[in-house]
Amino acid sequence: MIKFIDRLTNRTGLLSAWMFFVIGMMVTYEVVMRKVFNAPTVWADEMARFFQIWAVYLASAYVLKNRQLITVELFSDALHKRTGRLFDFFTLAIIGVFCCVAIWYGSAIVYESIEQGRHTSTMLGVPKWMTETAIPLAFLLLLAQTIVEVVRLAKGGPGASLSGASDVEAIEE
Amino acid sequence: MIAALILFTLILLLLLRVPVAFTLGGLGLALLVIGGFSPIMVPQSLYSTMDSFELLAVPMFLLMSNILLKGGIGRDLFAAVQSWLGHWPGGLGVAAIVSCAIFAAISGSSVATAATIGNVAIHEMTSRGYARPFVLGLVAAGGTLGILIPPSIPLIIFGIVTEESIVQLFLAGIGPGLFLAAMFVLFSILYAWFGKSYQPMPKASWAERRSASILALPTVLLAAIVIGGIYAGWFTPSESAGIGFTVSLIIVYSMKRMTWEKLQEAVMSSMKTTVTIFLIVAGAKIFGKAITLYRIPQDISLLITSNISEPAIFILIVCIVLLIMGFFLEALSMLLIMVPVLYPSLEGMGIDPIWFGILFVVMIEAALITPPVGLNLFVIQAVARAPLSDVVRGVWPFILIMLGTVVILWLVPDLAMFIPYKLDGFLKGLSLFS
Lengths: 173, 434
Known about the structure:
The complex is a heterodimer of chains A (about 170) and B (about 425). Chain A is elongated and about 65 Å long. Chain A has one domain. Chain A contains 6 helices and no strands. With about 170 residues, chain A is an all-alpha fold. Chain B has 20 helices and no strands. In chain B, helix 7 (about 110-125) packs parallel to helix 18 (about 375-385), helix 8 (about 130-145) crosses helix 18 and helix 17 (about 355-370) runs antiparallel to helix 19. Classes of the chains: A mainly alpha (about 170), B mainly alpha (about 425). Chains A and B meet through helix 1, helix 2, helix 3, helix 4 and helix 6 of A and helix 1, helix 2, helix 3, helix 4 and helix 7 of B.
C-alpha cells in the first residue's frame, strides 16, 4: 500500500510537471494566433488556468514526499533526534487536518456545482466541477501521502525525517 | 492584543518547523473556526488563488530559465562577458556581476542566478588568486540581482497580493537593479585595486571575443525580447514568459545542447519550485482572508497612522522589522506575511505602492544573504563546497551596499520611478529637440 501511494505520488508529480509545459505551449499558441494571425482563441487563457489549478495541487503530495516544503530551519541541527521526530509528527498532524477540511468542504462545493449545473462565465462555459474537483482529489492524495509519512516516521529509518530539505537539489546543474 | 497572539502563534509554529505553507494555511483555518466563520473559505481560497493568469508568469519564467540553464547558458554568458571585461582590475569579479545582471534578465529567481554564475565563476576566480570569502560573497550577492532586475518572482507575487501592476513593478526594478550591479562592480574594482592579491587576466583577442559573444547572443536577445515586449506593451508578463519559454526551447535545441533527460530535469525542477512557492501563496491567501475578517490589517494600519506621522519613520521601522525577519525567514514567506498587513497603511502615509514594492525587494535581497538563514548563502556554500563561515565572512560588505541602496532609494525615489513613469515623457522630450 505504501509503495502504491509513493508511486502514485511520483507519477502525479511527473504529470503535473508536464502540465506546466503544456500550459507554456498554450500561452505561446494564443499569443502567436492573436498577434500574428489576428485570430485569438477562446480557450487558451481559460485552459491554462484550468491546468494550473490541477497541476499545483496534484503535485502537493509530491512536494511533501520529496521534502521540498519550505521550513524555517533555525536550529534544526541543535535539535535532539527524538524532539525532531515529535515536531515532525506535529507537522504531519496539521497537514492532515488541513487536508480533511479541504476534502470535506471542497467536495461540498463540487456537489453543489454539479447540482446547480454551474458553469464558468466565459465563452467556453466549462462546468465548474471539472476544476473544483481538483481540490478534494488532490488533497485526498496529499492526505494519503501524509499518512504514509506518519507510518514511515513511526518505523524510523533513513529518510523518514521531514527536515533535511534539499535546497541544493533544485540547483544542481 | 489578538494581533500579538496571532503573531506569537505564527512564530511558534514556524520555529516548530511546520512548513510555511501549512503554518499560514493552518493558522488561517484555525482563526476561521474560532471566529465562527465557515471553513468553506479554505477550498474557495485554494481554488481562487490558482485561478489566475498573472500567476502563470511564475512557472513560465522558471521553465524558461531552467531550460536555458540545462542548456549550459550560464557558462556561455560568463565566458562572453569575461572576454570583454576580464582584463579590467578585478575583472573576473566584474564579469561575474555583469553575468549575474544579464542572467537576472531571464531569470526571476536569485537562487538560480547565484547557482548558475557561481558554478562557473567561483573556480575560475579562486584559481586566479582572488580571496575565497570575497568570491563567495560576491556571487551570493550578485545572485540576488535575479529578483530585482525583471523578471522577478517576488515582484509578480507582490503585484498579485496588492493588485498593483506587475508591469510597472518590473519596470521600476530596472533602475535600482542596474544601480546595485554598478555598486557591486565598483566594489570589485576597488577591492582588487587595493588588495592586489589576484593575477590579472590577459586581454582576450577579438577572435575570442567574437566566438564567445556569438554563443551568448541568443540568450541576450531573448532577454531583450522578454523585457522589451513587456515594456512596449506587446505582451503581458505571463504571455511574455510563455513566449520566452518556447523560444528558450528553440534556442537550446538548435544549439544541440538539449537531451530528453535534461529537459525532463528542467521541467521537474520548475514544477518543484512552482508548487512550493504556490502552496505558500495559497496558505497566505487563507491566512490573509482570516486576519482581514478579524480586521487586523485595518487595526494595524490605524495604529501606525495614528502613532507615526512621518513616512520616513514608517519606512525605517519596516526596514528594521524586515532585517530582523530576514535573519530567519525565507524571502517570499516574508513578503506574503508582511505585505497584506502593511499595504493598507501605505495610502495613509502617502507612499507609492510601486516604490514600496521595490524597496521591499531590495530588503528581501539583503535577507537572502544575511546569516544564519539566507538561501543564497546555502546555495553558494553547496555550489562551492565551502564552509558557511567563509561565505558569511565575504558577504557583509555587500549587505552594507544593499542597505546603502535602500537609503538612496529613499532619497532619490526616481531611481525606481523614472523608467515606469517618466521615461516615455523624457524620450518624447528628446525627440522634440532633434
